[in-house]
């Protein structure tokens, strides 16, 4: 499979419906990290977010024939993911659970400065940052996760969430400010 498939979503959807498995794989490759980041931000548990991401793709491919505007595949997929997350939350009797940590392959460089001159964020700092991210309001948590976790640009995040780049900028600025305040309180 070509991991940098340049075909647009609409073309890939059409090819998937025509029975080309490489097109479906390209859609999964293109959208998995984004859906995972949004599910993780919504559910606050990586393990459940991974399950919801897989379930999202299963439901999407089963009902792909119902997608009327193939150019809207991403927002349609996001809608499926958010409904999955809401359904999971509703099924939980005790509400929100503790958040599992992000894998070692994800960083939030730029959110906080290292405590020493090494330029490296300590595991303790990383845990504090992640814990504070999980406490942010959902719209702020989403942009932080998309920007740092999935490394989306402002424009990509705006398109995915259906808002303007100015809104993304405002949310990201506010989220960073909240994190700095909360992390500064932790050091006192």
Describe the 3D structure.
The chain is an all-alpha fold and 188 residues long. It folds into two domains: 9-91, Rna Polymerase Sigma Factor, Chain: A (Orthogonal Bundle), CATH 1.10.1740.10; 123-187, Arc Repressor Mutant, subunit A, CATH 1.10.10.10. It has helices at 9-17, 21-43, 46-62, 73-91, 123-135, 138-149, 154-161, 165-187. The longest helix is centred in the first third of the chain and has 23 residues, at 21-43.
In short:
The chain has 188 residues and is mainly α.
Q: What tags apply to this protein structure?
A:
Rna Polymerase Sigma Factor, Chain: A; single chain; 188 residues; 66% helix; 2 domains; elongated
Question: Count the strands?
Answer: 0
Counting helices, strands and paired strands, the structural category is mainly alpha
The gross shape turns out to be elongated
Count of folded domains: 2
Number of helices: 8
In round numbers, the mean pLDDT is 79
């Amino acid at each position: 499979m070509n991991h940098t498939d340049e075909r647009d979503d609409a073309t890939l959807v059409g090819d998937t419906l025509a029975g080309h498995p490489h097109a479906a794989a390209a859609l999964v490759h293109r959208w998995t990290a984004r859906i995972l980041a949004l599910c993780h931000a919504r559910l606050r548990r990586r393990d459940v977010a991974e399950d919801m991401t897989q379930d999202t793709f299963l439901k999407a491919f089963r009902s792909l024939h119902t997608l009327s505007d193939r150019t809207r595949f991403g927002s349609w997929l996001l809608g499926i993911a958010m409904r999955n997350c809401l359904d999971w939350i509703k099924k939980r009797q005790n509400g929100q659970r503790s958040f599992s940590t992000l894998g070692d392959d994800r960083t939030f460089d730029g959110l906080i400065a290292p405590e020493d001159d090494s330029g490296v964020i300590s595991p303790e700092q990383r845990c504090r940052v992640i814990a504070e991210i999980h406490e942010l309001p959902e719209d702020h948590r989403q942009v932080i996760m998309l920007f740092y976790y999935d490394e989306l640009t402002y424009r990509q995040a705006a398109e995915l969430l259906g808002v303007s780049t100015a809104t993304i900028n405002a949310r990201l600025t506010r989220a960073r400010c909240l994190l700095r305040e909360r992390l500064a309180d932790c050091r006192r």
